[in-house]
Structures are given as C-alpha cells and as structure tokens.
C-alpha cells in the first residue's frame, strides 16, 4: 500500500465531498493501492482535485463548464459522464448542460455532439435530474 501525501489526501477529500462517500472510498482505495493505475490516481488526486479544482480564480461551476466543454471536444464520453455529475453537484442545471451542447455544436460538429448528448443524458439519469421521458438518439432510433 502506498502512503498518500497531504495534497493527495486533500484532493481525495475534495472529490469525496462532491461525488459522495462511495466514489471517494473507491478513489482512495485505488490511490493507496499498489495496483496498476494507482500512480495515475495519485496524480489525479494532486493535480486535478487539489491543485486545479481548489485553485482560486473561477468558480466551481465555471470550472465544470470548462472541463465539460473540453471533454466534449475531445470525445471522451466516459470521463464526460463523471464531470457532468460533478457539474450538477456544482450547480449546473439541465438547461445549462443543454446550452453547453448547443454552444459547442457548430464548433465541434454534430457527430461529436451526438456522442456527448448520450453521455450527458446518461449522467443526468444517474444524478437523478433527467427530465421524464428524455431519450438518447440511440433510444429514439436515430443512431
């Protein structure tokens, strides 16, 4: 087992506060282990959840918007789902999430937005904020 430093502990405490005990516990277990990927988890605890997320300058909600936009543009649907849930915890609304996708569409293209929309809908469902009856393009038979 690896010993976590103060920055890593603070980063894990931060993400636990946003994502909840189950996520935080799994994150801590991964970071403290000697398993494959543990060094990357420790780096994320320090660089992402301590240094970047706790840096002053813009609000948590603004940080979520920036990260969501970057993940959409990079076509990273799995990580996007995590950050949509973080964004919701940071105060983003369903209307704002849709607004981000609308704003990005002409810049990243419709295929990219279709992938992102599915991830956003799934994340909203998991967070319990999805409007009733909202379906992905796949569920509607469009993709």
UniProtKB/TrEMBL annotation:
<dbReference type="InterPro" id="IPR003779">
    <property type="entry name" value="CMD-like"/>
</dbReference>
<dbReference type="GO" id="GO:0051920">
    <property type="term" value="F:peroxiredoxin activity"/>
</dbReference>
<dbReference type="InterPro" id="IPR029032">
    <property type="entry name" value="AhpD-like"/>
</dbReference>
<dbReference type="Pfam" id="PF02627">
    <property type="entry name" value="CMD"/>
</dbReference>
<protein>
    <submittedName>
        <fullName>Carboxymuconolactone decarboxylase family protein</fullName>
    </submittedName>
</protein>
<feature type="domain" description="Carboxymuconolactone decarboxylase-like">
    <location>
        <begin position="42"/>
        <end position="119"/>
    </location>
</feature>
<dbReference type="InterPro" id="IPR052512">
    <property type="entry name" value="4CMD/NDH-1_regulator"/>
</dbReference>
